[in-house]
From TrEMBL:
Coiled coil location: none
Highest taxon listed in the record's lineage: Eukaryota
SUPFAM superfamilies for the chain: HAD-like
Source organism of the structure: Armillaria gallica
Cofactor: Mg(2+)
Molecular functions per Gene Ontology: metal ion binding; phosphatase activity
Pfam families in alphabetical order: Put_Phosphatase (PF06888)
Keyword Membrane on entry: no
Signal sequence coordinates: none
Lineage of source species: Eukaryota, Fungi, Dikarya, Basidiomycota, Agaricomycotina
Name of this protein: Phosphatase phospho-type
Sorted UniProt keywords: Hydrolase, Magnesium, Metal-binding
Length: 239
């Protein structure tokens, strides 16, 4: 039995949104500005621009790392992932619209980084000045993805999941996808009847499943959850 568990990061594995959280902690006025501009500027570009503004006003790499380390993350999620990892037949993939620095900084703090086979996300890099330079996964000046399900321009999560599965053949016996956002809808359309989505209740993914799940032929089982302790409970019940 080979099992793959795919995790969205913000509000799925973590109990917060990392892109927003660091500004809530360090520069609430920039957080407000992002809320004002988010319908006009592509989200990854907006986070990148906000990081530049934070850097220009003297917010340091250490401050950003400290903010990430205190971001809400349920201990039940940590336990659930570690236990399944120790059992040995589960591969973990993180598929996220955040960035590699936010995700690895947080996963390292929780002792979860070694559990993940790959982290597929936007690229970010610390410059020696302390600026976190963030870029879309798909370069806006190159060829774009052709997803019609509604993924954001920086990345099609469905295409990325397919590419991961192609890199890790043969097929997994079961795929479990943990997600919350509307951009998690495209990848779950690619799941089979033996697969399962663990959908966080009352957020974009649930709304999208309600609206388009049947129409677009969603085949996997759907289980809803509210708190990470319930994901732990589901993980513990997997044999
Ligand atoms: Mg999310
Ligand atoms: Zn897509």
């Amino acid at each position: 039995m080979r099992r793959l568990i795919v995790f969205d990061f913000d509000w799925s594995m973590a109990d917060q949104d990392s892109d927003r959280w660091i500004f809530e902690v360090l520069a609430p006025d920039l957080r407000r500005k992002m809320k004002t501009l988010k319908d006009n500027i592509q989200w990854t570009d907006l986070v990148s621009q906000s990081l530049r503004e934070a850097h220009a006003r003297g917010i340091t790499r250490e401050q950003i790392e400290d903010a990430l380390r205190i971001m809400p993350f349920h201990p039940g999620m940590v336990r659930g992932i570690k236990r399944l990892k120790e059992e040995g037949n589960t591969t973990f993939l993180c598929l996220s619209n955040a960035n590699n620095i936010f995700i690895t900084t947080i996963l390292e703090t929780k002792g979860l980084l070694p559990a993940f086979e790959e982290i597929v996300t936007n690229r970010a890099e610390w410059e020696s000045s302390g600026l976190l330079n963030l870029c879309r996964r798909i370069d806006p000046h190159g060829p774009q993805h052709d997803c019609t399900v509604g993924c954001s321009p920086n990345m099609c999560k469905g295409e990325e999941l397919d590419a991961f599965l192609a890199r890790h053949a043969p097929a997994y016996d079961q795929i479990i996808y943990v997600g919350d956002g509307s951009n998690d809808f495209c990848p779950i359309l690619r799941l089979r009847s033996q697969d399962m989505v663990l959908c966080r209740s009352f957020r974009g993914l649930q709304r999208r499943i309600d609206k388009d799940g049947e129409k677009l032929g969603l085949k996997c089982q759907v289980k809803y959850w509210g708190g990470a302790w319930e994901v732990e409970e589901i993980f513990n019940a997997l044999s």
